[in-house]
Amino acid sequence: MNKTGKDASSIEFLHKLVREIDLPKFFRLAAKGVANLLGADGAALIVHEEPDLLRYRFFHGLPAAHKQLLLYAFNDQLGVAGAALHAHKALLVTDYPHSAYALPECVNAGVQASLCSPVMANGKVLGILAVTWFSPPQRLPDAGDYRMLGVVSDFIGAALFRFQREQHLRDLAMHDPLTGTANRNLFFDRLQHAMTMATRRERLLAVVVFDIDNFKTINDQFGHSVGDALLIEVRLRVQALIRDGDTLARLGGDEFALILEDIRCYDEIEIVVGRIRESLSMRWGSKINQIDVSVSLGATIYPLDDGDGQALLRNADAAMYEAKRGGGNRGLFFSDSMALAHAQKSKLVSELQLALDNDEILLYFQPIIEIATGRAVSAEALIRWQHPTLGLLRASEFMIAMEHPYNSLKLDRWLVAQAIKTLGKWQARGIFKMLHINLSAASIENHQFFETLHRALAAHEDTVDPHYLGIDLVEWSTVRDIECARQMIMSCKALGVSVALDDFGTGPASLQHLRLLPIDTIKIDRSFVAGLTTDKADRVLVQSMVGAAHVFGIAAIAEGIESVEQKDLLAAMGCAFGRGYLFSPPVPEESLWADQQ
Questions:
Q1: Domain count across the chain
Q2: pLDDT at position 345, please?
Q3: Where does residue 240 rank: exposed (0-12), middle (13-18), buried (19+ CB within 10 A)?
Q4: Model confidence pTM above 0.70
């Protein structure tokens, strides 16, 4: 291209750049434009992170085989980028693999030459614009190229500075400046999302509100700086007691709120409330000024306590003030809901005892998918209750009644009979796919359950192949008596029935279970799958679970898959099967194999 054509292309590129207001598009346009103008293969934005890291944020032209360089971080003293950062000027290296600046990861990716230009704003280096050649450059940049590179770097610096300021303002708008916790705005955003997820995952969530007893007296007596320090201490102690997925917010003054998500039973909430109360019952302060600290807590449970986010917060507030009126240093659940829960529990227990006789209990089915092909290979049966006045209830909405020992055993017997009947219908239609059912802890400990299963299969031995029945045991329930669980599993397998460990990873000795229990499948708990795209620890844990399953020669099913990103990560880890709303919600039987009529 001659100089006139080159100048025209440069001007056209700059015009496009200054007109683009969407920041991600702006950064990509800048990288692509610079690479094209310099005859390079790609370009990247490398952001400077305090105190001493450089991290790739996006990379135009990166070969697909080296996507691991995205978000790759390295010390800011290293590489061409590090040298350009500290020199505050552009630096070109034409024989990258043999240079003193070569990084092994970049050499492995095939980088042959690199030109790095500092991205600056407000007198500070915010990052590096790196231009990359994956083959030897056909020409070297001239003075005009360097001027253009400097202009684009300045444009990027201004845009990046604006982006960081906007991000800072968003953080201020959603976080408490003193404690760093979520503020009221972010609390309600997360609460709405948590309520949606609780409904979808058929789990409980709790809203817990607490404040410091006599906090005004502490502020008046010792000063607001001491009060602020106490609030920070409260935040640190509570944060250490909750899970990464839970939310701690400061609503104002000394009032805090918690969202506890993915709760399986009422007892879990009681335990957390008790631990917080104990941790915050302390003598705190300096040697001179020792302060007796205690808190009052109130909690409400969704969906047992129904309503929107504001209603749940009001419920928890009412319980907290009731605790405070009782002298403080205690935790209470919303009184009206507790009264209702006791009444509902007794009523639901007795109603559920009759529901099976009245044909009110039914099954929905959620397909289990072969991740690589998207093909439905099996299904999980989920209990529903067509309540005569309350409508269709999910299991989480009558869990209290299901956990009653009489009801749990009766439901399990019904579930086994219904599953075998369902398999008989499927197999008569030529559908030979596995059906998983979930058993209660009571059935694991009940020595008569195997006889129930044996008799039910024997009654249908001519119409049902038992190898397509899978029994899921909740992992934590096997810990009570692992030898009892082992014997039951072996008895089931002797009948041809396969056995899976459900909610795998949530128990205290998961890997030990793989060694001691003769199971066929693990079901990786949805709480780990939910964090795959955001939490490195969850990715490591899931990878280790899948790897352990492969080592022991058993199948792995990931539960709660809700995004394509989660599915792709699981596929890359070697997890063959999964279920979740990404593929299908639970559906009635007539909709499950509709394509195989």
A1: 3
A2: 64
A3: exposed
A4: no
Say whether both 239 and 150 belong to one domain: no
Indicate the residue type of 475. E
Q: Return the pLDDT at 471.
A: 93
Spatial CB neighbours of 64, under 8 Å, sequence gap ≥ 6? none
Residues with Cβ within 8 Å of residue 229, at least 6 apart in sequence: none
CA distance 272 to 125: 45
137 and 190 share one domain: no
Distances (CA, A) of 24 to 35, 57, 156, 345, 564: 17, 10, 11, 53, 21
CA 47, CA 43: separation in Å to the nearest integer? 13
* SS3 category, 136: coil
Same domain for 520 and 441? yes
- Sequence-ordered list of residues with C-beta below 8 angstroms from that of 350, at least 6 positions apart, any chain: none
Is the domain of 396 the same as that of 510?
yes
pLDDT in tens, 377-434: 999 999 999 999 889 998 888 877 787 767 888 898 999 999 999 999 999 999 999 9
Domain assignment of residue 589, given as a range: 356-596
Low-confidence ranges of the chain (pLDDT < 70): 1-10, 18, 20-21, 65, 167-173, 335-346, 405, 444-447, 475-481, 506-510, 595-597
Examine the domain organization and report whether 436 and 522 are in the same domain.
Answer: yes
Q: Is 371 helix (H, G, I), strand (E, B) or coil?
A: coil
Q: Take residue 19 and report the two structure tokens written for it.
A: 């007109």
Is there a single domain that holds both residue 252 and residue 364? no
